[in-house]
Amino acid sequence: MKRGIPIPIYKDAYMTILDNNIAVFPSRKKLETVRQTINCETYHLSDGELLYLVAKGDKLAFEHFYDRHEKRIYNKALSKCQNIQLAAQLVQEVFVKLYLRVIDSEDPSKYQVGYLYTILETSYIDYLRSCPDKTNIALDHEENNDKDSIIGSDHACPDKIAEQDDVIRMIMKPLAKAKELVHKSTGIAEKKLALHRKKKVEEDTNLAIETFNQLYCYGYSMQEMATNLGLTLEQVKYRNKKLIDLVKCRLDETERHR
């Protein structure tokens, strides 16, 4: 049996992973050193570029990726489980699973920030299924103040998820229309034109959803989104303007049909 390396997490709790996977999981002290010594060019790499370096065995790149996203993943976990110890454990599980996927992947850049939230969701569901008493998940009294630091907590805004779903539906509406046109087209030329239109709408829809998730669901700033996706700030601003225009257009259509 291989010896596991202890990975420090909050409140002196520990997890272990196999020696041949990662030397030392990022610790608070080590991350401070990373922030002070990391090369500026590496610091501004996109998430995809960092993960590519991780796959090549660059542990500093993984530590920087962790430093970039850990706080938001922790806040999201805390908003779900309302338990500081459990939230910290879920965060560690998310990043360990990410690391193991990345080092075995031929395309590591696909495992970006959205994937972290997916792992968190499945990890929390797995925890609930394995927990015999799901009603005893509570915050320690002395740690109650940490609840106020949750960024984008679903509990702080009960209608947030519903609102986000409404926006996603608005974004997806042109794609639904484009697919319908493909289905209704008859002649070869008409079909070809409809398919070309559908492809363009799919590209615009994917960009809009990615922009919405980064800026409004995950709470990243425009500069952070630019860094995450390897874009310029102007490109992000342009994406955001297109997203806002699209949503406004859908809202105007809704008002006209009332």
Automatic annotation (TrEMBL):
Keywords: Sigma factor, Transcription, Transcription regulation. GO terms for biological process: DNA-templated transcription initiation. The keyword Nucleotidyltransferase does not apply. Residues 65-130 form the RNA polymerase sigma-70 region domain. GO terms for molecular function: sigma factor activity. Gene3D superfamilies: 1.10.1740.10. InterPro entries: RNA_pol_sigma-70-like, RNA_pol_sigma70_r2, RNA_pol_sigma_r2. The keyword Metal-binding does not apply. This is RNA polymerase sigma factor.
